[in-house]
Records
---
Amino acid sequence: MRVAWFPMIVASLAFTYGPAGIQAASFLKLVGSLDRLGGLFALIVIREFAPLVCAIVMAGVVGTAICADLGARRIREELDALMVLGIDPIRSIVVPRFLALIALTFLFNIYALLFGTFGGMLVTLSNSEPLGPFFATYFTNATTIEFAGLAPEDGRVRAVIAIVACYKGLTAKGGSEGVGRAVNQSIVITFLMIGAIDYVFTQFLLATNPELSQVR
């Protein structure tokens, strides 16, 4: 939490207020429908940006830290020493980090939702518009299905980040250079998996719930 909370806040605000918010507000203002910005932000933040930003920050900050820590322990033969003492390194070192990353990602996903929505509020205020229409269309589109679909996608991403980081750390070899190589491979593989999971799950969610594609 100490190393990831500030990047999470900055990334959430930057992604939602910057490219998404400003561009969307410019288009809606052009057609005279800026009051629909809240509904658009409900889809942007809940369905895409909150889990995506959370996954990227957690993989880039926490996942790499776990991979580097486990890799350094492997290089220094600490894991082999634990096994000689009869201590299972998977149970005593890997599992606590796995569970901690999953729990922390769930908490930070709430942060991403809150500050992503706050980015939409800033866009509305910067265009001199009241917040009432923003929240009215936001809560119209922020349905139970949207939030229910967020949980399984977020859970799969959390598990992938933890598994890849732990596996690459445990299999690191080649000294300090090998640890750096393992961390680099971990972040690349994790980002590719995040994109693949996001694509597959979004397609599945829209196919099984066609009402989500309707304008509300």
---
Amino acid sequence: MDSIDAAELALSLPEVDPERPSPARIYDFWLGGSQNFEADREAGRLAAEVMPSLPCGAKANRLFLQHVVKDLVSTRGITQFLDLGSGVPTVGNVHEIAQATDPDATVVYVDIDPVAIAHARALLAENATAHAALADLREPGVVLDHPLVRDAIDWSRPVAVLLFSVLHFVPDDNRPEDIIRAFMAPCAPGSYLALSHGGPDDDAPEAQQAVVRDYASRAGVPVTPRTAAQITPWLAGLEIQAPGVEDIRVWLPSLTETHQTIVPFVGALARKPA
């Protein structure tokens, strides 16, 4: 697999434009990571000036991810994870949380940003059950047919499909609900879908609209905040787990004390029935 990885990155890395911000690297900057360029830091700083709750929201979202992954492994017995739109695997990412409970847990990170994937592969070089695939989650067939995904995931056993802080970058025209269905289709009964999604900020709607416009202009990526009511139909046919499709502060009440002012994030966990 090493030759495939090297060829894949060799083709993709020359296309990286350090002057164009990337959502994955902006997020890394907000989390305090180092895998970002000056353009990412500038975009992140400008967005945070307009909407100061953004960096804190990113950190709160990471804590929610950790909470869900730990629960999936410890309580629900899930040992396989497909993390879509994973971004840069900074400290406390999926493989660290899952493998702290089960050292043999399998994780496949998938992202469209070659810098994020290059960093992930360097970080995971000595981790036999964690991998990083360069692919676009908007093309489920391509992702599912990727050699790293095919070789690492056993679809006859339950899998957790993770979509954290990424579907708000997928516009309605790309039908996020169809993307979810395509990834859940090969999953065995007892598999889970876990997601978080940026929601409308009713306390600062004008600031959020300004950030959305700037993000689209600088990074070339649209942002579509959505409510729980808009997201819930995407989970049709799945068993939504308590407390439901809710603000992540409902899922993790401690966030109310530690992250008092955050951009809203909706969280959900749903199980594929037998």
---
Amino acid sequence: MWWVGRSDSARPTGAIVVMGAAQYDGRPSPQLAARLDHVVELYAKGLAPLVVVTGGKQPGDRFTEAAASQLYLVTRGVPASAIVEEDSGRTSYESLEHVAVLLTDRKVHDIVLVSDPFHSLRIRLIAEELGFHASTSPTRTSPVHGRRVFVKELKEAAGIALGRIIGFSHLPT
């Protein structure tokens, strides 16, 4: 997990898929903005013709994470026509499951996943379980630091171990 989170295996693919995170009334949280800024860089390099933004909304929210992400990317030069929204997933598995449907319709099976380093291995394994050939390109500017990273890494390690035993679709997050 540690190695995957510190390795960038981005390569030309059919789509860049960015995992959602909190948004505040249509504005990405610092964590989500760091992921999206990385997507802007990858898109500018021509790694994929398509960007998939993910994430639903919490009760009481006016915007989905996907909608906030789409607006953020468009204001930074990614054409709206290149962005696809997956706006109903509430967990990583749900989001990637819905992405699988969206991209299968477009005949895209090769993707690069963007998230925080501690999240990269689990989402790659989920994507592979769903039939994707996936690589990861973690953001290097995440605002998650210090003890918070350690706690998240422990949670991810437990999720990866349990997901490999019972399947990622059975995990709560």
---
Amino acid sequence: MRTGNPALNANTFENFGVYRQDAAVAPANVMTIGGTVQKTFFLLVLAFGAACYTWSQAFRVVEADPQGAIGSVAPWVVGGALVGLITALVICFKHTWAPVLAPVYAVAEGFFLGGISAGFEAQYPGIVVQAIGGTFGTLFCLLAAYQSGLIKATENFKLGIVAATGGIAMLYLVVFMARLFGFPLFDSLFASGLIGIGFSVIVVAIAALNLVLDFDFIEQGAERGAPKYLEWYGGFALMVTLVWLYLEILRLLAILRGD
């Protein structure tokens, strides 16, 4: 069971002993798809509430300084990003902490996304609604395609998405480190123009296809009777993919609307 999502890997469920093929033996103590959906929805609500806070704080200064939206909430954006990253790493290594830390991750990402979204909205009015619509539209369309069997997470499909996701992650890391030391690399990939648009479309597609792998992975975990607390882990994993997908769609829309 492979997934491109760094929060889910081949050992996520297998580290918890022998699976029961019939999860009905003790339904109150095992992971279910319905329970994972409920946890995911709860995490999304937490993230949305936190995002609304930083959004409102940012737009208090927009009328006076349209370019100062991000600066006004910079501590929340940076703090949210750091707390979210640290929390995500801890959850990946300590799965049993997911019920406690997954909500923390959701709130932290909400603060981060609210500030980032406000900055984009100040520069490109209406872009956030489009990005949110694109994100959840993609989620529901891929979920419907997966449930109908139109898209199947075959072994080759999984290998391809994992390889592509790993390549993108390495590229982002190299570019970040290079720019940190004052050496800009691959500027054309992140600028407006055909190359930048094409690269952004590819990244959005890869991020979206990771949702299919996540659906498959969680479904298999539920079928094998994984522990109940992994519903929180599954919800957290979906949040990781959705956050990535939203940011990539937001960036693509900004490139399309830029000069």
